[in-house]
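Let's practice the habit of predicting before peeking. Look at the sequence and jot down your guess about where helices and strands might fall. Then scroll down.
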Amino acid sequence: PLSDISPLADLTSLESLDFFQQNISDLSPLSNLENLKYLVLSHNSITDLSPISKLISLESLELSDNNFSDL
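Done guessing? Here is the structure:
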């Protein structure tokens, strides 16, 4: 499974990402992906959504089965 998504941080033209059932916990590399429209993060180890809170182009976001402590 993929756990390090930091190489994606500068790919600001990306519109869609699917990280279903990986081992992702840190979303900070996605924080500048302003063109992202579709993001699948289900079945990971995510606890903090704040890095993606400013992605205003998002149209679809899947987050089921993570470890959120506060939304």
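How did you do? The first strand starts at residue 16 and ends at 18.
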